[in-house]
Amino acid sequence: MIRIAYQQFPDFYGDNDTLARTRLLFRTCAKTAVTKTQFDIDKAYKEATGLTLDQTWDLTLALFGLILTKNGGIQPGPIKAGDLKQNVSESDITRFVSMVSLTPQEFREKLKLPEYQVDPLETFNPNPLVNWPLIRLKNNRWVVPIVPYLFRRGTEQAFYDVIRYGGREFTGFFGYVFEEYTDRILATLGPSYEIIPEKRYLRDGQTYDTCDRIIIKDGNAILLECKTKRLGLRTKFTADEELLRNDLTDIGKIDDKGNVVHAIRQLYRTERDIRENCTGLEDLHKKITGTTYPLILVLDPYYLANAPYVKRIITEELEKGDSPIRDFSWQILDARGFEPLCALARQEDLISLVAKKFSSAELEAQEMKTFVDNFINYEKQINRDILMHPILLAELDALWKEMESRYGIKFKR
């Protein structure tokens, strides 16, 4: 099931959600994160690709707009810089096309490879067109077989272009980006919720940090730990247990703080130490008098993350070591579930929703997105429009205004 999910589900994303999230992450949150770190993402992207992030964004929008405004997407002659109505040069176009295109022969060769070897940067889809959405023909002519792939390649997949160059430094920077994204999504919850950032405290003379965010209401709390680590492409498309165990735990690696098992240990320690009123947590001890609900938030789609097969592996790893963890419940959710969950909280109590998710083995096994979809479809029969988060709507509106001002194209939500 895991293998089938990663082979089929990515192409069923809503483009509106994906594009809005990408703009939020790379155009809005990244600029804020730059002020908190020494990592210069624009410089790194320029050194990695020869283009600035703005140039790649503009070229992507320009090509997308040109395709949409042409009859059937057909350009009668070679595309020139003047056609794109942007401040780009012919060499910029050449560099961009080289980065995102294959010749027909190269495309055929990619199709012969095992699916997990198609892209060394491990994008989440084995189709070569995801990473190389343009087919480069003779005489400076191109074909774009799947137009949304072009949009995604020049926007959300900037992550892969930079991580190849920035490595661990970029990974640390992107952690700040993800936390900024999380705060913006949580910011719409309203004044009845108290959101506590990570706190430093003491236990037995040693210094520790709580989980990334704690959301409190009426004595109950959601404990939230954010992780940007992704499953490897080979793991996704083989569902091999040993590979999955490696990705969930980073077995044998020096720094294992980016994985799901570490996140759960962090959540367990936070809950325990709040209950035990450790030094520095006295205020939280007074405020959290009811039930806590530990959540691990990841960015990438994490299909079947709460299903028995994955949960068994995680449970086995938690029971290892000097401080085994047993009888501790948690839930993993990705951005596709986090956003509509917080959007729904404008009408339903967030902590009550999460409590319901924890209320039975059947519901616990579901992805958060599935749980939210079922809740509005069968329990409350709420209009699905409510699930588009207002922060994403604002980003999407800004994107469509950008397209309209440049190309006169009007989009509907």
- Kindly report the spatial arrangement of strands forming the biggest sheet: 4-7-8-9-10
- Tally of strands: 10
The topology string of helices and strands comes to: HHHHHEHHEEHHEEEEEHHHHEHEHHHHH
Q: Report the mean per-residue pLDDT as an integer.
A: 83
Would you state the CATH class of the largest domain?
Answer: Alpha Beta
Biggest sheet record: 5 strands, mixed
What is the CA-based Rg, rounded? Answer: 23 Å
Structural overview:
The protein is α/β, with parallel strands linked by helices and 413 residues long. Helices cover 52% and strands 11% of the residues. Strand 9, helix 14 and strand 10 form a beta-alpha-beta unit. The longest helix has 29 residues, at 158-186. It starts with a helix and ends in a 6-residue tail after the last helix.
In brief, what are we looking at here?
The protein has 413 residues and is α/β, with parallel strands linked by helices. The chain contains 19 helices and ten strands.
Topology overview:
Layout: H1 2-8, H2 15-34, H3 41-49, H4 53-69, H5 90-100, E1 101-102, H6 104-112, H7 128-131, E2 134-137, E3 141-143, H8 147-153, H9 158-186, E4 194-197, E5 200-203, E6 206-209, E7 213-217, E8 220-227, H10 233-238, H11 241-249, H12 260-275, H13 282-287, E9 292-298, H14 308-318, E10 331-334, H15 335-344, H16 350-357, H17 361-364, H18 368-379, H19 390-407
Notable traits:
single chain; 413 residues; alpha/beta; Restriction Endonuclease; 2 domains; five-stranded mixed beta sheet; three-stranded mixed beta sheet; 19 helices; 52% helix
